[in-house]
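Researcher: For the annotation table, I need C-alpha cells for Sorting nexin-3 isoform X5. Please keep the output clean. Sequence:
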Amino acid sequence: MAETVADTRRLITKPQNLNDAYGPPSNFLEIDVSNPQTVGVGRGRFTTYEIRVKTNLPIFKLKESTVRRRYSDFEWLRSELERESKGCWSSSGTE
C-alpha cells in the first residue's frame, strides 16, 4: 500500500516590486453611496442616494458613472452583489 506524503514546498513566486504592491489593481469595481436626499411630503416621502461607480471591467460600457437611486433600488443592488460575490462584500461605511 502506497503512503501519501503532503508536499510542503513553497510555491515559486516572482519578486514583487513597489508598483505591483501599491499600483492599481488589474480589475476593480468601486461603488460609493453618498449624499442622501429626502424628497416628497407625507406618505409620498422617500430618500434617494447618489451612487458613483468606477471600474475597468469590460462588461461595463462606462468607466465612471453617477446616478441617484431610491434606497430600495440600492438594497436590491447590494443583495445581487452579495449573491454574486458569495461573501466577498466589504463596506467602508456602516451597515
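Researcher: And a one-line annotation?
Model: The two ends are 55 Å apart (CA to CA).
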